[in-house]
Amino acid sequence: MRNIKIATAVLLSNILVIFTAWYYFSPSSHEANRQERKVLFWYDPMYPNTRFDAPGPSPFMDMDLVPKYADEEQTASVRIDPVQTQNLGLRTAKAHIGTLLFSQSVPAVLNYNSHDIAVVQPRSYGFVEKSYAISAGDSVKKGDILMEITVPEWVDAQSEYLFSKNKNVLERLRLLGMPKDDIQRLQKTLQVQTRFRITAPISGVITEYKLREGMNFAKESVIAQIQSISPIWAEAFIPESLTSFIDEKSEFSIYIPSLKEEFDLLHAEILPSVNQATKTLNLRAKINNPKGIYKPGLSAYINIKTKSAPMILIPSSAVIDIGSEQRIITVDNDGSFVPKLIKILGESNGFTAVSGLNENESVVSTGVFLIDSEADISGALDRMRKADND
């Protein structure tokens, strides 16, 4: 009798276990559970940004839409099946401290030296006695004769000096524009000069020469304008994003294709103004040009080599930049994915310098957009932004 009771109890226990397992794994039980959970929307995992109000086949892929439940864990992280991450080929990288290396070539053009420019004016009215075979674009050397002129006011002042020997008259002649050599000649010869040779005060290129023989001129007229080409300028425009990394340790060289010549530049400076249309700054370098080999207007290329200070670097493929914000996907110790806001400080050779990240943090470097889309669906991005604002 005792054995019969034990057998009966064991049988009833087995029946209870079988019934419980059947109920738990039966489709009707799963359907009941699904009906109890609130569905926010349906979506295609391959196109997670598109949401649907009802279940059904995906219009994008040959699969059914997946429900997004309201009772799923509301955290700032995202959990993805390890098998799925392996199939997607996700890779991670460690944030590390390093320097960005920049090597960039920018178009340049050789130009006149605007720091060394001479404008020759008579400062008194007169007329041209003789002009020479000179025109804009010609090279001249310091002391070359530009033209011969007569200035009545200079003639009158000379006569006054010879009559009075008043040295104040000599100072007036200087203020009236009479050349220094002619004033000294007056003192030495004590003879009135009526014809004056105007010479080039510097060596360079004539950029203005309009008066001709027989023409009258006013005191504000320009006899000639001369601009130096030694040193000659090389000017280029560089992106404003690069300027913060250029310092006294930066290296510059220039290549002039027409002359098949490349050489180092000892000095280059960035002008302070920014071109608002192109967001570039003007880079100016000076090149010694004693023989006048380098001509204004020649095309060239300025090569820039520089590096940043030590910064936190990550692969550029890990950065999601939507304009209004930049973010990455980090990996927690438990394997969950956490979106994080960052600031981009610079980019070069496949690496991006960022702030808002610590050294040795793991970031997703490939497949980052799939995880980012999942974070958007789960609300992790919104919670990340809220935490950042707090």
Write up this protein.
There is one protein chain. The protein has 9 helices and 24 strands. The chain is rod-shaped and about 120 Å long. The chain folds into 4 domains: 20-69, no CATH class; 82-98 and 310-389, conserved putative lor/sdh protein from methanococcus maripaludis s2 fold; 102-111 and 229-307, Elongation Factor Tu (Ef-tu), domain 3; 122-222, RNA polymerase II/Efflux pump adaptor protein, barrel-sandwich hybrid domain (OB fold (Dihydrolipoamide Acetyltransferase, E2P)), CATH 2.40.50.100. By secondary structure, the protein is of the alpha+beta class. Strands 6, 8, 11, 13, 14, 15, 16, 17 and 18 form a 9-stranded antiparallel sheet that branches. The model is unreliable at 15-34 (pLDDT under 50).
Radius of gyration, rounded?
42 Å
- Spans of at least 5 consecutive residues with low confidence: 15-34
Secondary-structure-based class equals alpha+beta
Strand content: 35-45%
Outline of the structure:
This protein is α+β, with helices and mostly antiparallel strands and 390 residues long. It is built from 9 helices and 24 strands.
Write the layout of secondary structure elements.
Elements lengths: L1 H24 L1 H10 L2 E6 L2 E6 L13 E4 L12 H7 L2 E4 L1 E3 L2 E20 L5 E6 L7 E2 L4 E6 L1 H13 L2 H9 L4 H10 L6 E4 L4 E5 L7 E2 L6 E16 H4 L7 E6 L4 E5 L2 E8 L4 E8 L11 E9 L3 E5 L4 E2 L4 E6 L5 E12 L2 E5 L6 E5 L1 H11 L1 H10 L1
Antiparallel strand pairs: 1-2, 1-3, 4-24, 5-19, 6-13, 6-18, 7-9, 7-12, 8-11, 9-10, 11-13, 13-17, 14-15, 14-18, 16-17, 19-23, 20-21, 21-22, 22-23
Helix pairs in contact: 4-5
